């Protein structure tokens, strides 16, 4: 069976962007997998610490158990998303036990988010997870730069953020970071922002973000590894497809399918209808937004 690191490398070479779908509610796993399989596509299913702290995914073990019920490894693999060293509420996280648990559960790739640390501390923390995960042949995603939006406060006005490049990943720092950590994939900030997760703001429609593709091309050149786009909901389509040609190989999509699930559940009271809403939105994202129908055979 092809390893997920090789699949993401293949995506990078082909210039396509593989989605990683967040599942803050366990019943979202089934319709996501169904959509990916029916589109003869490929995707990751992922869970992030904020989703078991602030939503209902319960934790890496519960997600792995639900994933195992539906998993078809030719189409979907399981990824551990965002385990922050300092979380969105400014609290220090005891992250090592979470990685040990996830690796024991069979997660095929993992992400340490040290982006709220100073550069050298981020390098040091990322190195510890690379050393641990690589013992099991598991690739590690890291983050450099500030993909804002998960924090409780409001974002700065988007146009100001984009024009000033606030929090954008620095090219020379990225070069050094990748050399010194040995991370496999790097999440970069190039205009992308996370959908809100704070109570009171999590239902808001997300702004349409754009991407600085020139900065992305420089980052791809400097790092030489697959790059990752967080905050994947609602980015201008042309920019996402362009990003695939400039080094982005993975895009994390959370808010779009979470809000589809929550809105349908609220309106109908039916979990089945909420799952159907997730299924339809996932199909649209794969087929119409990312153009990934039938990609599986080419990637494998
Ligand atoms: P969105 O919720 O904005 O799609 O971002 C998801 C994400 O980046 C999870 O890591």
The separation of the N and C termini measures: 9 Å
Helix/strand/pairing category: alpha/beta
Q: What are the distinct ligands in this entry?
A: 1,3-dihydroxyacetonephosphate
The first-level CATH class name: Alpha Beta
What kind of sheet is the major sheet? 8 strands, parallel, barrel
Description:
The chain has a single domain (4-299), classed as TIM Barrel, CATH 3.20.20.70. Helices cover 46% and strands 14% of the residues. The protein contains 13 helices and eight strands. It has an eight-stranded parallel beta barrel, surrounded by nine helices. Helix 2 (29-38) runs parallel beside helix 12, helix 6 packs parallel to helix 8 and helix 11 runs antiparallel to helix 12 (271-289). The model has no long low-confidence stretch (mean pLDDT 97). Bound molecules: 1,3-dihydroxyacetonephosphate. Residues 22, 48, 81-82, 194-195, 230-233, 252-255 line the site of 1,3-dihydroxyacetonephosphate. The site of 1,3-dihydroxyacetonephosphate has 14 residues, from strand 3 and strand 8.
């Amino acid at each position: 069976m092809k390893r997920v690191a090789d699949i993401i490398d293949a995506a990078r070479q082909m210039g396509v962007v593989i989605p990683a779908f967040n599942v803050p509610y366990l019943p979202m796993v089934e319709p996501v997998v169904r959509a990916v399989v029916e589109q003869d596509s490929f995707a990751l299913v992922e869970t992030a610490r904020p989703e078991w702290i602030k939503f209902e995914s319960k934790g890496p073990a519960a997600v792995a158990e639900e994933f195992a019920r539906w998993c078809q490894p030719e189409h979907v693999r399981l990824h551990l998303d965002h385990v922050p060293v300092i979380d969105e509420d400014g609290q220090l996280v005891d992250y090592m036990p979470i990685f040990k648990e996830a690796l024991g559960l069979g997660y095929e790739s993992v992400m340490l988010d040290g982006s709220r640390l100073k550069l050298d501390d981020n390098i040091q923390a990322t190195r510890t997870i690379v050393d641990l995960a690589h013992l099991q042949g598991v690739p590690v995603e890291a983050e450099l730069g500030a993909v804002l939006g998960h924090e409780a406060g409001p974002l700065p006005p988007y146009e100001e953020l984009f024009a000033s490049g606030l929090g954008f990943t620095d090219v020379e720092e990225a070069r050094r970071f990748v050399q010194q950590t040995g991370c496999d994939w790097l999440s970069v900030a190039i205009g992308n922002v996370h959908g809100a997760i704070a109570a009171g703001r999590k239902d808001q429609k997300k702004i349409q973000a754009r991407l600085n593709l020139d900065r992305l091309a420089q980052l791809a050149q400097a790092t030489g590894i697959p790059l990752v786009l967080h905050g994947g909901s609602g980015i201008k389509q042309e920019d996402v497809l362009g990003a695939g040609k400039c080094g982005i190989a993975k895009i994390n999509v959370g808010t779009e399918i979470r809000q589809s699930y929550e809105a349908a559940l609220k309106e109908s009271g039916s979990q089945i209808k909420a799952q159907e809403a997730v299924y339809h939105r996932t199909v649209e994202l794969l087929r119409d937004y990312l153009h990934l129908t039938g990609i599986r055979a080419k990637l494998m």
